[in-house]
Structures are given as C-alpha cells and as structure tokens.
UniProtKB/TrEMBL annotation:
This is DNA polymerase III subunit epsilon. GO terms for biological process: DNA replication proofreading. One of its GO terms (molecular function) is 3'-5' exonuclease activity. Keywords: DNA replication, DNA-directed DNA polymerase, Exonuclease, Hydrolase, Magnesium, Manganese, Metal-binding, Nuclease, Nucleotidyltransferase, Transferase.
C-alpha cells in the first residue's frame, strides 16, 4: 500500500511595487521568488529561489521595503525564462503563503502576460493563506510576519529588509514551531 506524500511549498515574492488604483499587481512585476519545500511536515533541502528582471523600474516605496535595485536586476532572467522550472517545482503541492492574495495575484498576472495555457496556479496547487488563519486565531491584532514571529518566539534578527526566500524561511519556522 502506497501512502500519499504530503507536499507543501512555503512561498513568498517581492515585487516592483503595487498598483494603488486597481488590482494590486496590475502593471507591476515579480522581482524575487522564494519557495521552500516541506514533505510530510519536515523541511527538505529543496528550495526554489530566483531574482527576476522586471523590464520596468522598481518603485522607491518598494525598494525601501526589500532593497532590491534596478541595477541588481539588470542581468537576471525574466519570469518567462524561469516559469517552467517554477511551475514544475510547485505543481501538485499545497502552497502556504502569508497574504496569499498578494502573491497569487502577481503570479497569475505574470502567467497571463505570457499568454500561457496555465492562467491560475490554483489549477495546479491548493493555497493556504496563513494571514487569514492568523486573523482567525488572533482577531484584532497585528498579524504580519514580524508580529507573529514575536508571538511565536521565532528569531528574525537577520531580517533587516524583506526578502522572498528569507520571508519563506521565517514562515516555515512558524509552521515548525506549531508542530512542537
């Protein structure tokens, strides 16, 4: 008898900014993806991490959050260059994302811009939003990663700015803390 593997991917993105007047992702691009694999509730050594050339400037407000500059991104691949590898990495998993609407919106927008057959990652994955879960557990309180880290005793000293892989690691540490 074969048991089904419980595969989860903790995922985060960083972007060029957000649109204030329509869908948050419209006209903006992903510039970093960080994804960490968990199998049967244990971290594996597998991760997917890349920086991306957005072919548009990073807004100053976004730069102040993540510190990723246009100059740094100049020679990086585009989303379309890495999309197959990324899709293959997340396919069939449960994506665990803090504020999933943000990241899923950007990923789906990138897929639509490519005019790919896949238009929505929910066609290949399930998504769990840890922000929604945190709001149920701690209603009326701050529930960003910093606040949750303080509540759960997760060390985030090395986090001076947002980073997709670093934030995915922090979130995966939260999941690990809940198992103990």
């Amino acid at each position: 008898m074969q048991t089904q593997i419980d595969r989860q991917i903790v995922l985060d993105t960083e972007t060029t900014g957000i649109n204030k007047y329509g869908p948050h992702y419209y006209s903006h691009k992903i510039i970093e993806i960080g994804a960490i694999e968990i199998i049967d509730r244990k971290l594996t050594d597998r991760c997917f991490h890349t920086y991306l050339k957005p072919n548009r400037p990073v807004e100053i407000s976004a730069f102040k959050i993540h510190g990723i500059s246009d100059e740094f991104l100049f020679d990086k691949p585009t989303f379309s260059n890495i999309s197959s590898d990324f899709i293959n990495f997340i396919k069939g998993s449960e994506l665990i994302i803090h504020n999933a609407n943000f990241d899923v919106g950007f990923i789906n927008y990138e897929l639509k811009l490519m005019k790919n057959n896949l238009q929505n990652i929910i066609e290949i994955c399930t998504v769990t939003d840890t922000l929604k879960l945190a709001r149920k557990i701690f209603p009326g309180k701050r529930n960003n990663l910093d606040a949750l880290s303080e509540r759960y005793g997760v060390n985030i000293e090395k986090r001076t700015m947002h980073g997709a892989l670093l934030d995915a690691e922090i979130l995966s540490n939260h999941l690990n803390m809940e198992d103990q």
